[in-house]
């Protein structure tokens, strides 16, 4: 059960044993649920996006709560997969590259996820294929805004620096809406991949919100390789590139992000990608040792250039 709805595992009466996921809107205003249905049935269709099979309303077919039936994805969230399966860096780079390409296709259609986080990135048990889920906060070009706050629904430690700066500048103007863009989705992908390869978020969510906002906007996170020395240098650089403070310094498209994530695999240092993410605890098979988070993790970024007036 989430803020806007509940998801149930269901089976057809005439085909027991065949599982689907049914998402039922519990919000009094069905607009967001209807937007998510429209996205998944039309512009957001993609092999790496959860597929919708049926829609309707319950209990009344006209006035009832909207629901839709979709694939029941058998797999784990990205961060759980990373620490349970302990895949190789090659597998993580391939997953990250696949998600980047998926985002590139969605963005080219005017679709934004707007709530990308490890829990919304499932890795199928069969084939280790990533699947994007939960477009409840999603948006598409030309659609009427459903956001009633300055920022769209989301999670603070996955928000981009520019989104937080917008809120800091305009908190006295609640009628303004942040112009969320593809750069925000790609930043969130960087956060997800950082969490996968280090076991930590670049800006830990346990901090006070005010301090967390300052860290995201003003501090440079440690390199993934500084946290986990096994991370191949090209992959570490690619992840940091997605976390650049200024959106114009990040890859401009999902395709460009894919190229950066794949660069190391196509170079002479590809052997480093065959290592597993984490060391195992001696004498405890299949239990990983998560790298420690440094006591003084942050560096202050170079000051931004201020145009002369």
UniProtKB/TrEMBL annotation:
Residues 1-261 form the Protein kinase domain. Its EC number is 2.7.11.1. Residues 286-309 are annotated as: Disordered. It is an enzyme of class 2 (transferase). Gene3D superfamilies: Phosphorylase Kinase, domain 1 (3.30.200.20), Transferase(Phosphotransferase) domain 1 (1.10.510.10). Keywords: ATP-binding, Kinase, Nucleotide-binding, Serine/threonine-protein kinase, Transferase. GO terms for molecular function: ATP binding; protein serine/threonine kinase activity. InterPro entries: Kinase-like_dom_sf, NEK_Ser/Thr_kinase, Prot_kinase_dom. It comes from the Bacteria. This is non-specific serine/threonine protein kinase.
């Amino acid at each position: 059960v989430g803020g806007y709805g509940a998801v149930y595992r269901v089976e057809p009466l005439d085909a027991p044993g065949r599982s689907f996921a049914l998402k039922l809107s519990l919000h009094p205003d069905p607009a967001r649920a209807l937007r998510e249905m429209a996205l998944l049935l039309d512009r957001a269709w993609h092999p790496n996006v959860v597929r919708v099979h049926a829609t309707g309303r319950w209990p009344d077919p006209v006035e009832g709560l909207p629901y839709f039936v979709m694939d029941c994805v058998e797999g784990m969230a990205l961060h759980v997969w990373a620490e349970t399966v302990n895949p190789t860096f090659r597998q993580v780079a391939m997953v990250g590259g696949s998600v980047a390409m998926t985002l590139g296709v969605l963005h080219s259609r005017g679709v934004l996820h707007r709530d990308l986080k490890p829990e919304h990135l499932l890795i199928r048990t069969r084939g280790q294929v990533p699947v994007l889920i939960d477009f409840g906060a999603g948006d598409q070009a030309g659609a009427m805004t459903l956001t009633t706050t300055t920022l769209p629904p989301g999670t603070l430690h996955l928000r981009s620096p520019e989104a937080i700066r917008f809120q800091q500048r305009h908190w006295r103007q609640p009628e303004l809406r942040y112009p969320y863009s593809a750069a925000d989705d790609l930043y969130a992908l960087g956060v997800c991949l950082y969490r996968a390869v280090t076991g930590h978020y670049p800006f830990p969510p346990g901090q006070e919100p005010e301090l967390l906002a300052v860290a995201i906007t003003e501090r440079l996170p440690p390199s993934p390789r500084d946290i986990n020395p096994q991370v191949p240098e090209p992959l570490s650089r690619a992840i940091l590139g997605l976390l650049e403070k200024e959106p114009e310094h990040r890859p401009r498209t999902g395709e460009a992000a894919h190229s950066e994530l794949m660069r190391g695999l196509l170079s002479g240092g590809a052997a480093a990608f065959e290592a597993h993410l984490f060391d195992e605890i001696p004498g405890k098979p299949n239990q990983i040792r998560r790298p420690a988070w440094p006591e003084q993790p942050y560096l202050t970024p170079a000051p931004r250039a201020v145009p002369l007036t």
